[in-house]
Amino acid sequence: MNLDSPASRSLRRRPFFARCGLYAFAAALGEVARVSISGQEAGSGDADEMFPLDYGRSFLVGKNPANRVRFVVESRTRVIDTRKGRSEDFIQCCSCKAEDTFAEKDLFKPDNYDFLPVFGSEDGLIFRRKAYLNGNYRSTVKAAEMWGGQVYQLRDLKGAKRLDDWEAIRAASDAGSPVVAQTRLSNEETGLRAIIEHPVKTLNIHDEGRMYQTDTGPVAFPDLGNPVERLVDCLSLAYVAFNTDHFADFVIEDVTPINEGDREVTKVWHYERRVSLEARNSLWAAPV
Questions:
Q1: Global pTM exceeds 0.90
Q2: What are phi and psi for residue 287, nearest 5 degrees?
Q3: Would strands 150-153 and 59-62 be described as parallel, antiparallel, or unpaired?
Q4: Across the strands, what pairs with 68?
Q5: Would you say 160 and 267 are in contact if contact means Cβ atoms under 8 Å apart?
Q6: Which helix (H) or strand (E) holds 8?
Q7: Mode of pairing for the β-strands spanning 70-81 and 86-93
Q8: Three-class SS state of 235
Q9: What is the pLDDT of residues 104-154, one digit of tens each?
Q10: Engineered SS bond to 151: which of 15, 30, 207, 214, CB 3.0-4.6 Å?
Q11: 3-class state of residue 68 by DSSP
């Protein structure tokens, strides 16, 4: 929907409900959200600039009329390939369980699994985690084929300001303000950079020591040391923590052995592989 076309300008001069109707009104809201509410989309403007999202009010909505599913957005990762002059945003959405949608009964499927989607502008990911090491844990899908495409309802965190010191971080925590973290990573050898953004779900404050520490996940973690043709292929699920502005620690979901003494009894998908990376971290908060 081109909001600046002559046809759109003509439509805007007519009474809104007369030209849309209730369902078209809802669809139009989604298109407006994608065009004008989100602060920065992949491939637009300066890829290094990212204004924080309001994660309590940001959603991805499917276009398939048989299931116009709505997912809460949990994190956003922008991968920037400086050598090829490209960037792509990946929107990681909330996890759910394997379900028989709209069934008359038995809504959860047997041999159940965690289900988590990640949406890019070109390619998406679906993670299916069972209680054992399942082979279809990770599937790459064209984004247009995921629920018939998506409406991006990404909203900026209005009034958000950067928290520049410990006092500001503590004050935001005490006030109950929404806090958003951004972690910037880079790899000079590959020319890849990334911005990982997420709402801070756990924020630790040490009054006497004047310290803080974030701990949040999952997020879409980019392996910048691994040059790939499709940017989606560098992503894994991880938790991230930091307590300063110059490094971030990640624990990444990977194949993990389960041992009884010295004997390996099985393998599972688990957050176990740890990495610590140089980073530029920032925290942002909006007034309540």
A1: no
A2: -65, 150
A3: antiparallel
A4: none
A5: no
A6: helix 6-12
A7: antiparallel
A8: strand
A9: 999 999 999 999 999 999 999 999 999 999 999 999 999 999 999 999 999
A10: 30
A11: coil
The amino acid sitting at 79 is: V
* DSSP class per residue in 173-190: HHHT--EEEEEEEEETTT
Amino acid letter for position 144: A
Assign 78 a pLDDT band (cuts: 50, 70, 90).
very high
User: Which residues, at least 6 apart from 138, have a Cβ–Cβ distance to it below 8 Å?
Assistant: 125, 126, 127, 128
pLDDT tens column, 198-247 = 999 999 999 999 999 999 999 999 999 988 999 999 999 999 999 999 99
- Over residues 160-210, the pLDDT tens digits come to 999 999 999 999 999 999 999 999 999 999 999 999 999 999 999 999 999
**What is the spatial distance between Cα 231 and Cα 80, in angstroms, rounded to a whole number?**
9
What length is written for the chain? Answer: 288
Instruction: Find where tokens 């490094």 sit.
Output: 247
Contact between residue 30 and residue 153 where contact means Cβ atoms under 8 Å apart:
yes
Write the pLDDT tens digit of every residue in 13-48: 333 333 344 344 444 444 334 433 343 444 445 788
Count Cβ atoms within 10 A of the Cβ of residue 103 and give its class: 0-12 exposed, 13-18 middle, 19 or more buried. Answer: exposed
- Sign, CA torsion 287/167/283/270: negative
* Whole-number Å distance between alpha carbons of 264 and 251: 22
